[in-house]
Amino acid sequence: MSGTTSTGKVMTAEDVAATLRDGMTVGIGGWGSRRKPMALVRAVLRAGVRDLTVVSCGGPDVGLLCAAGLVRRVVAPFVTLDSVPLEPHFRAARQSGAVAFTEYDEGMFLFGLLAAAHRLPFLPTRAGLGSDVLRVNPELRTVRSPYGEGEELVAVPALSLDVALVHVDRADPRGNGRYLGPDPYLDDLYAKAAARCYLSCERLVPPGEPAGPPQTLLISRMHIAGVVEAPGGGHFTDCSPDRGRDEAFQRHYARAAAAGGEEWAAFAARFLGGDEAVYQEEVRRWHEERARPVKEGV
Amino acid sequence: MTATRAEVCVAACAEAWRGDGEVLAAAMGVCSVLGARLARMTFAPDLLTTDGGALLTAAPIPYGAPPGPVEGWLPFRDHLWLVLNGRRHVMMGASQIDRHGNTNISAIGPWARPRSQLLGSRGAPGNTICCPTSYWIPRHSTRVFVPEVDMASGVGTDRAAALGPRAARFHDLRRVVTDLAVLDLGGPGGTMRLLSVHPGVTVDEVVAATGFPLAIGPGGVPETPEPGEEELRLIRDVLDPGGAREAEVPG
After folding, report:
1. What local confidence, expressed as pLDDT, does residue B1 receive?
2. Per the UniProt record, which EC number(s) apply here (chain A) (predicted)?
């Protein structure tokens, strides 16, 4: 037996962030405010790497990275917090012209990842034809079908990634990842489209444990460079069935992000100023403070 | 029983799926979601509906309720494949819509540096060019019904025509339901036409809330039918006992 030792590919979020370089293209799994690798994103914020191209079905991952000034370009079909429709930091970044935007249709985005995952230069699709997605992405080309009547289709270029960050419910030290929620999103495609993919998980388990339907084994170790155990690592996004979205905290985030200025600075200082343990502890305290009955004046 | 405006809207949204057969009724917005489920419970029993997520429910469920028994699985990636496959009729929202049914959910103002960044194009380009598409717009106003959209996320009839009959053969804009009226793209040259006004709304009000000329059919503009007793019972007691529809379309 060679290769995987008992610790296998286990590393810390800081280790992952330290592998990023300025100017890299980074794919981030999940969808909107659902199963985002937030602990890894928070580590990237602390590492302060710059000029990133972020490829994502965007949520607070995109917002936080934009707010920290680490992003040169966003490649996405949308950026949303789902229960809060618009992402305040992404809006601010776009409206101030701080980030460039490659705006794709969702189906185009899927095909871009599929192309990269299969080492194809592009995949053809009807999605995008006739829309302004072609106007705002003048580098996009169409192809003519060599069959039939020679239909013209959009040639979606491969969305090849330097690094991908993905969060799942369970993983083993070798890098196999299991999802327990209702939707795999596009997470395995990010892993396959990337030169290196790092996986964080709610809980690290021995290979094959706990037993579950084999089709929930979404991520294969052949595509994974490192594994991080990060309980609550998807917070505040939806990580069902273990943890639903922390809606109260997401509203708190969205309010502070929309307010900007001192209010955002206070949020960032409290929650993002320390490491992941500090973050989790401050979130716990924040909920405790809210639960405490407000004392009325005498 | 007198239907509220929201309940008229739910029934008008439901009508969008009449005759569609065994396809996915994909819906966005409260009245649209309720309309899809109402259609399935009444005149369109073959429709497929979701829990709002990846699950196709065995029966239509109340708004915001857990899925209950499930008959199918449609995670986002398969949903996107289904767009290309075509067995789907989506009713989307729009922040702007123009006379030819081009829609914008992306950004207001110049795209390069927008005044207001919205969602992004999401699935609108693919939806409109690949499968039947309707719209549910809870606030009919000149802010939404504009002469020209700032960014065409969803493809309208003029752009589809410009692509030619081959490329646009699956383009199929059906109806536009708002809090005031029901419209379609059946006017001259694929322009928007007023089909009916909701009870209590005048044609003049709709015209004033629309930022471009509306075509009007030769027979004039009838009133949007109100839901019947059984439909009202289903909306109130079964599908939306919490009254989410009334928050979307107040009184």
Report:
1. 67
2. 2.8.3.12
